[in-house]
Amino acid sequence: MYDLATRKHTLALVTQGRSLNSVSKQTGISRAAIRAWTTRVEPLPRTSPCSLCDDAQPPQDQAAYAYLLGLYLGDGCLSRQPSGTYALRVACADAWPGLITACRTAMRRVRPENQVCLVQNQGCVMVTSYSRHWPCLFPQHAPGKKHDRRIALAPWQQRIVDAHPWDFLRGLIHSDGCRMTNWTTRTIGGQRKRYEYPRYFFTNKSDDIRKLCTDTLDEVGVEWKRTNAVNISVARKQSVALMDTHIGPKH
């Protein structure tokens, strides 16, 4: 019913961060049609290339994949669609537009054949891309919550993390972590003084995902400690400086 120019114009509105409902009202096109177009604007062959399916090779942009893997393990999910494709969704808070852009860029670099759209929810944006091959790239996908089941990297994934540990850690911190300023007081010369210091936290209910984080921190020489059952802290001055160099606060 709609020509290619109309489809591209409509998707351009979606990529600006507009909700499907508002774009539908402006254009008169149903939300179902717009949602379908976010999967593909132009028809492709029935199967698009997948490095893992086709030649058992990992994604070409491995740094982008390592970052996206960290985001997926934190705030990402895969869901099968009626068409047989899978939706990869990563929840990114509205407060961090830089994170939304970085997530969207990583998805595009990992699967350049597929469109990436932004779906506005209350307080967050779901960065979303559809492909039949997302389960190939994220074999951790399975029914149930991540912290209720075993999470382990495939050998080819571990090799990518070993080659790009900081990208992987950046994804984990950008999803389930933060950089914040703590404070404490000390008595010096009879006077109580307040001291502030930066600190990184990573919080995840999955023992396996926390171990992936701490194993990678060990590999890059960052000292950490467990503060409770689900929380990892990096507070040593040299380790925080190292994290600042390679990760930094979300923005």
Quick recap:
Helices cover 44% and strands 23% of the residues. It is an alpha+beta fold and 251 residues long.
Overview of the structural elements:
It is built from 11 helices and 8 strands. The protein is α+β, with helices and mostly antiparallel strands. Among the domains are: 1-41, no CATH class; 162-246, Homing endonucleases (Endonuclease I-creI). It has a 4-stranded antiparallel sheet with strand order 1-2-4-3. Helix 5 runs parallel beside helix 9 (165-176) and helix 8 packs across helix 9. Residues 41-46 have low confidence and may be disordered.
Mean pLDDT over all positions: 88
> Count of DSSP helices?
11
The main β sheet shows up as: 4 strands, antiparallel
Portion of residues within helices: 40-55%
Search tags:
4-stranded antiparallel beta sheet, 23% strand, Endonuclease I-creI, 8 strands, alpha+beta, 251 residues, 11 helices
Secondary-structure map:
Blueprint: H1 4-15, H2 20-27, H3 31-39, H4 51-55, H5 62-75, E1 76-80, E2 86-93, H6 97-110, E3 116-121, E4 124-131, H7 134-137, H8 155-163, H9 165-176, E5 177-188, E6 191-203, H10 207-219, E7 225-226, E8 231-234, H11 237-246
Antiparallel strand pairs: 1-2, 2-4, 3-4, 5-6, 6-8, 7-8
Helix pairs in contact: 5-6, 5-8, 5-9, 8-9, 9-10
